[in-house]
Amino acid sequence: MALTVLLGGARSGKSAEAQTLATALGRPVTYLATATPGDEEMAARITRHRSERPPEWTTLEEPIKLRDALAEIADCDTVIVDCLTLWLSNMMGNDESESSILSESHAAAVVAAARSGETIAVTNEVGLGVVPTTPMGRLFRDIAGLVNREWVEHANRTGFVVAGRVMPLLKISDWKETST
């Protein structure tokens, strides 16, 4: 089928749009969650996200081994990967090197794009704000941009989500000239 990537800022509606798309496809859905409940506030977010999913959906929680998790999901299922930036945080917290993160991101994107069912990846666009003041913050921002580019390169559909609305993103080669 397809790989769709939904990028956007925090609380922009990315997950809700992913769920709407997945529901509309009418196939079994597996929600691949990458978040870990490291503190009370994150645990509450995870609980809220779980309650917003239809009960018939399968949830698979995998904070690190994204490629392996994607490979074990039924190929015809619709998959929502939520989210790539949390996965990146987990990888960096696991002291993975930049090269190993980018290699794993590439491999996971290839698996996602090769599935016969739809894969919908949710990720944050963190490069639009201020430059982080710490080396780790700048490294996270930079790797997140590279991970997003990798997944979008393999996607046949990409949207930027702002205030609950999706704007399609096109390559320059896909732009159509209009006469004035």
What are the key terms here?
180 residues, alpha/beta, 7-stranded mixed beta sheet, 44% helix
Topology of helices and strands:
Blueprint: E1 3-8, H1 14-25, E2 29-33, H2 40-52, E3 58-61, H3 66-72, E4 78-82, H4 84-93, H5 98-114, E5 119-124, H6 135-154, E6 157-162, E7 165-168
Helix pairs in contact: 3-5, 4-6, 5-6
Q: What report would you give on this structure?
A:
- The longest helix has 20 residues.
- The N and C termini lie far apart (37 Å).
- It contains six helices and seven strands.
- With 180 residues, it is α/β, with parallel strands linked by helices.
- Strands 3-2-4-5-1-6-7 form a seven-stranded mixed beta sheet, with helices on both faces.
- The protein is 44% helix and 20% strand.
Helix-strand makeup class: alpha/beta
Spatial strand arrangement across the major sheet: 3-2-4-5-1-6-7
- Strand count, sense and closure of the main sheet? 7 strands, mixed
Backbone shape: globular
Counting DSSP H or I runs of 4 or more residues, the number of helices is: 6
Summarize the helix and strand pattern as letters: EHEHEHEHHEHEE
Number of β-strand runs: 7
The helix content is 40-55%
Estimated radius of gyration: 16 Å
Mean pLDDT: 94
Distance between the termini: 37 Å
- Oligomeric state, counting identical vs distinct chains: single chain
| Parts with pLDDT < 50 across at least 5 consecutive residues | none
Strand content: 15-25%
